[in-house]
Automatic annotation (TrEMBL):
This protein's record includes keyword Membrane: yes
InterPro entries linked to this entry: Band7/mec-2_domain (IPR050710), Band_7 (IPR001107), Band_7/SPFH_dom_sf (IPR036013)
Source species: Alterisphingorhabdus coralli
Topology relative to the membrane: Single-pass membrane protein
Protein name (database record): SPFH domain-containing protein
Transmembrane segments: 6-25
Domain Band as annotated: residue spans: 20-180
Keyword field contains Transmembrane helix: yes
Chief place where the protein resides: membrane
Keywords, in A-Z order: Membrane, Transmembrane, Transmembrane helix
Length: 297
């Protein structure tokens, strides 16, 4: 009777013990087998066996999937510019070293993020502000290479490092705005000065051209007058038989008389004429004309 009572208990215990020897690991996960609390081996995806509890125990499923850390890291460049570098680091546990990641790091994500932030700041410190923008690829490669060397000791591998455009701090943005505003004011002042300069040059050139044209007109006018006077003098001398000197004196006297007439043509004017202001008196001209006739053959 006692044997029949023990038999079900034995079956129950067998099932319990047997079930503790079998476990399943999910795809892209691993489980760690510990023998009396000491790491023994790593079980991969699928059905696995182990010694019954409490000799061996299996940990929970530990992911091998690619994880991502996103951080906005405040950094200081080599030229003392404070910027925020948005960075995304994709990483995963290396299957062959998964036990290191599981046992060496208590809070893997937080500790990996700390390495990422420290490395980003260290790399940025060797670059100036422009290089942070212009050399993003080199920046990413440097961060990825250094993180790979450090985190491989803890069973992690870096899949990819993505760096977005650095964002200047508010103080730096304000400083840039002031620089740009000053530059625009300078450009505006320069352009305005150039416009004034060009206008002055054009006005001077226009005045120069006008004066040249005016001088040319005066020269042509004097040339025409001279030619006309020469022809008139030649004709006058030829027809009257007077000398050129007497003819010139006659023309001068005529011009003087016409000038007096024009000056006195409007009322309310007084014209003062002195003896030395007239080229020659009419009597003098008459005597010169008589002398010229007497000298003719």
């Amino acid at each position: 009777m006692l044997d029949f009572a023990i038999f079900p208990v034995g079956i129950f215990l067998t099932i319990i013990v047997g079930s503790s020897c079998i476990f399943i690991t999910k795809q892209q996960h691993v489980r760690f087998i510990e023998t009396f609390g000491k790491y023994s081996r790593t079980a991969t995806a699928g059905l696995s066996f182990k010694l019954p509890w409490p000799i061996q125990i299996a940990s929970g499923n530990y992911s091998l999937q690619i994880l991502q850390i996103e951080r906005d890291v405040s950094v200081k460049s080599s030229d003392n510019a404070f910027v925020v570098v948005p960075i995304r680091v994709q990483y995963q546990v290396a299957e062959q070293a998964a036990n290191k990641a599981f046992y060496l790091l208590e809070d893997a994500e937080t500790q990996v993020a700390a390495y990422v932030i420290n490395q980003v700041r260290s790399t940025a410190a060797g670059l100036d502000f422009n290089e942070l923008f212009q050399s993003k690829a080199a920046f990413e490669d440097d961060v990825e290479e250094t993180l790979t060397d450090k985190l491989s000791n803890y069973g992690f591998r870096i899949v990819n490092v993505l760096v977005d455009d650095p964002q200047p701090s508010e103080e730096l943005k304000s400083a840039f705005d002031r620089v740009i505003a000053a530059k625009r004011l300078k450009e505006a002042a320069t352009n305005e000065g150039e416009a004034v300069k060009i206008k002055a040059v054009l006005e001077a050139e226009a005045q120069k051209e006008a004066m040249i044209k005016k001088a040319e007109g005066y020269a042509q006018f004097r040339e025409i007058v001279a030619e006309g006077n020469a022809q008139a003098l030649q004709k006058f001398v030829g027809e009257t038989g007077l000398s050129a000197k007497t003819a010139i004196a006659f023309f001068a006297q005529t011009n003087a008389m016409e000038a007096l007439r024009d000056a006195a043509s409007d009322g309310g004017k007084t014209v003062l004429v002195t003896d030395d202001s007239m080229p020659k008196s009419l009597g003098g001209l008459y005597m010169d004309a008589e002398d010229d006739r007497l000298q003719q053959p």
